[in-house]
Structure formats: C-alpha cells, structure tokens
C-alpha cells in the first residue's frame, strides 16, 4: 500500500458494521497525522509504510473491547490491577471521544458567531469611512484578529491547504497587533470627531422655537440679550463629521431643530467628550417651543418665555429660574432639578434625583420614585404629588386642592392652605400647621399631625399609629376610636363646635394630646 486511501479501505473492511463510527473517528485522526507529516516534507508512501497493518489496529481495538466487556461482567478472570488500568484508559478514551463530539457540534456555531462579528466590524469600518471620513481604530484591530480566529477554526476542514491557512492566519494576527500599536501611539483607537464652533441665527423672533437633542454630555446655558437682536444658538466642542454636516446643511428660519450625537450601535467606539450649547434669547421674546432632550448634561436656564417648556434628561442637573410658560414638562431619571420663581402648569417626573421647586405659580404634578422633592412658596389651584419610596416635603403653599399619595415613602406637609388629601400605604405622613379641609389616610404607617389653628379633619388608619397634637387654646371637638389598639384623647370633653376632627384606626394606637410649647 502506497496511499492512505488504500490503507483506509483495508482498515474499514477489518471493522464490523456496528463499529463504523469508531472507524470514522480513527480515520480523522490518521488524516490529521498525514497532513502534519506532509507539512514536514514527508511523502504519503513513507507515512503509510510506518503505520501498523490495518489488521493489527483492528485487532487492538477489539482486544480493548473484550477487556471492557470483562470489566463489566459479573465474573472476571482478569486480575484486579489490569481491570483498574483498563477501566482508567477506557474512561480517558470516552472523555476524549465526548470532547471531540462537543467540538464537532460547537465548531459551526462558533464559526457562525465569528463570521457575524467580523461582518459587523467590517460594516462599522466602511460606514465610518463613508460618513465620518475616519478609519475606525478598534473595529479595524478586531477585524484582523477575528479573521485570524476564523482561519484557525476552518483549517481542519481544508487539510491540504492547512499550511497556507496558517500563513494567512499569522499574517492577520500580526497586522492586527501592528494596527493596535500604531493607533495606540497616535491616540486614534477611539473616534473623537473634530473641534467645531458654529453660531446659528434665526430670521426673526416671531414664532421662534428651539429643539435640541443629544446623547452626548452637554452643558447648556440660556442668555437673555437685547430685544433688538435675533434669537440664536451657539454650539461648541468636538463633534462627529456627520453631525457637523447636519448643522452646516440645516435650514434655519425661525426654528432650530437639531439632534446631535445620536447614540447607535455604530457609535460604540466614538467618544467626542463634553460640548457646550448656548441659547441667546432676546428680551420679551415668547418662543413657541423650548425643548431639550439629553442623555447627560448640566442645564442653566434663565429668563425664558415660551408656550411649551419641555426637558427630558437622563442624568445631570437642571437649574431653571424665571421660566414663564403655558405648559411645562420635566423628566429626569437621576439628576437634580431646581426651579425657582417661575410661572407655568408643570408636570415633573423624577426617578431618584432631587427636585426643588420654590416660588412657582401654576398647577403642579410630581411623579417620584425614590428621590427627594422639596416644594416651597407655591401658589396653585391644583397640586398632585405621587411618591413611591422617596420623600416629599411641601411647605408654605396656597392651593385649592392638594392630593399627595405614597406607597412606602414620607409625605410631609407644613403651613399649607387648601383642601388637603394625604394617603400612604406603609410610609409616614406628617401634617403641621395646615389650614383648610384635611383628610389623611394610611394603611400601616404612622400619622403625625401638629395643629395650632382650628381645622376640620378626617384621619384614618388600618394598623398604623396615629398621633395628633392640638393647641388647647384652639380646641376642637375630637372623635377618636380604635378597634384593638390603645386610645387616649385629651379633648374628649370638648363640646361640639364648628370644627371637628374624626380619628379612626382599626388596630393601631390613637393619641390625641394637648400641644405643649
């Protein structure tokens, strides 16, 4: 026999039909061994000549098979030491067989993932070249390295080309490492855009509006300018080439509508840094719309008159003062929002940041999750506070109607005039020196009320503790009851009058006490 094909034909004939799978595995091993020897310069005939005869290999296989049967038999004539040794060897072969099977099954999947990764990086490079006129550093490196891995995975399927595939794989690896070194030394691994400055002036103040959105870090400021000037916008910082072209080719009459640094999967390796945006608004100008949508940034907004005031911020801080608007909407996930001396019907949604609103005129709705809300000196027809687990404090406010609800947080209302409804599930409610109709509901949390003036109130709890401190000089009729809890009422003998307080708890303690200075 001078060829491997003839050798394998004879070897296959020596195996039983039910053992053909084992033959196929042995065939793969022999072909791999042949490929390695051929790379070393040996001829196929020399390799085949050194192999044991097909009959000997088959005999060895069936001898091992017989020993395996002896190990599993009820009685054995084989010595214990030999059985243990054969068992260990058999287990090793089984593990090797299992490993080969796993690799064989996973190899196509691994190849598919590597090809998908290579395609993504290649598209990334082409897209950045066309749109940004920049060669993407990290994707280019990863493209070379992924190509090297792909070649290593497929080389076992092309035994005759194995040597050539190894050369290409090594070349791709060297190129990838070389590009990594060059781009690292020149600080070009990440795309940083280019430095840019632009002033955009609107045609007139009539029906002017600003809308600006960005997923990058932005510092935004508004500046009030002379009424003789026109509204304008200034952008400054590092920007992607595609965004610069968007600014340059934009049409601006009496409206600016810009979306810059829009986040997408092909900006994974882009880092432009913080930019600066300034709005110049002539004194007395009433904008149709003022909208900011940012992923992160710091905002300082002063002296704005607009029909619609809209802020959508993921992280960062907002400071706004003297904002006059018909409607206002502020959404902040993690930042702090401070609004002072403004007039508008405002809706605020905050997740975990701090919200401070002082000296505001207009209806107010706040939805909070776990943050802190501090509200002072408000004048409003309607205030709605919805709180999950954070803390809400309302002080020195006038309103026709207040509705404050919480799940597990704290609601504190002090020196506020109006019809007040406060409800909670498990949190704490504190009412102090309020005037108007007062209704407090709590399921299991404590209720504490401190009153100097007379007030009509209804207080109820399922299992929470209720404590009411009342100035004895302004005594009102208090009706208190509890199912199984302890009760104490210092005002039980006060005769009926214009003002009355009804306190009820099913299982909690109730204490109506005289306030002591």
TrEMBL record:
Pfam families: DUF4097 (PF13349). Keywords: Coiled coil, Membrane, Transmembrane, Transmembrane helix. The chain crosses the membrane at residues 105-126, 138-158, 165-185. The keyword Transmembrane helix applies. InterPro entries: Toastrack_DUF4097. Residues 13-40 form a coiled coil. Residues 215-371 form the DUF4097 domain. It comes from the Bacteria. Signal peptide: none annotated. This is DUF4097 domain-containing protein.
């Amino acid at each position: 026999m001078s060829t491997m094909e003839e050798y394998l034909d004879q070897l296959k004939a020596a195996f039983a039909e039910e053992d053909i799978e084992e033959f196929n595995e042995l065939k793969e091993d022999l072909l791999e061994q042949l490929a390695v020897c051929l790379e070393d310069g040996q001829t196929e005939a020399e390799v085949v000549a050194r192999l044991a005869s097909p009959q000997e290999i088959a005999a060895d296989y069936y001898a091992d098979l017989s020993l395996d049967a002896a190990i599993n038999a009820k009685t054995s004539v084989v010595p214990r030491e030999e059985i243990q040794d054969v068992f260990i060897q058999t287990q090793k072969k089984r593990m090797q067989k299992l490993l080969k099977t796993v690799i064989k099954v996973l190899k196509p999947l691994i190849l598919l993932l590597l090809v998908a990764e290579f395609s993504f990086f290649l598209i990334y490079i082409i897209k950045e070249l066309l749109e940004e006129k920049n060669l993407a550093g990290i994707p280019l490196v990863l493209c070379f390295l992924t190509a090297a891995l792909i070649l290593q995975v497929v080389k076992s399927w092309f035994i005759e080309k194995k040597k050539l595939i190894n050369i290409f794989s090594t070349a791709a690896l060297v190129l990838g490492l070389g590009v990594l070194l060059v781009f690292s030394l020149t600080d070009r691994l990440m795309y940083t855009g280019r430095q840019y400055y632009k002033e955009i002036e609107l045609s007139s103040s009539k029906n002017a509006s600003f809308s600006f959105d960005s997923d990058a870090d932005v510092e935004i400021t508004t500046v009030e300018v002379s009424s003789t000037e026109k509204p304008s916008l200034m952008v400054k910082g590092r920007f992607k080439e595609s965004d610069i072209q968007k600014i340059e080719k934009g049409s601006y009459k009496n409206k600016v509508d810009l979306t810059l640094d829009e986040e997408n999967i092909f900006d994974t390796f882009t880092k432009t840094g913080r930019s600066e945006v300034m709005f110049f608004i002539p004194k007395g100008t009433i904008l149709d719309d003022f909208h900011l949508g940012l992923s992160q940034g710091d905002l300082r907004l002063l002296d704005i008159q607009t029909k619609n005031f809209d802020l959508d911020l993921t992280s960062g801080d907002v400071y706004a003062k003297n904002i006059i608007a018909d409607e206002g909407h502020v959404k902040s996930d993690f930042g702090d929002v401070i609004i002072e001396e403004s007039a508008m019907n405002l809706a605020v949604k905050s997740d975990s940041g701090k919200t401070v609103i002082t000296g505001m005129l207009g209806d107010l709705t706040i939805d909070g999750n776990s943050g802190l809300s501090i509200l002072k000196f408000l004048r409003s027809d309607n205030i709605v506070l919805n709180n999950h687990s954070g803390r809400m404090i309302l002080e020195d406010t006038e309103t026709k109607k207040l509705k404050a609800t919480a799940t597990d947080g704290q609601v504190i209302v002090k020196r506020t005039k109006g019809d007040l409804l406060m409800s909670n599930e498990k949190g704490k409610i504190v009412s102090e020196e309020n005037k108007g109709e007062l209704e407090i509901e709590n399921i299991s949390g404590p209720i504490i009320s401190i009153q100097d003036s007379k007030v009509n109130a209804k207080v109820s709890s399922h299992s929470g503790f209720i404590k009411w401190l009342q100035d004895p000089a302004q005594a009102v009729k208090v009706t208190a009851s509890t199912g199984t809890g302890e009760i104490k009422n210092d005002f039980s003998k006060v005769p009926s009058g214009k003002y009355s307080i009804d306190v009820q708890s099913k299982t909690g303690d109730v204490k109506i006490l005289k306030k002591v200075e």
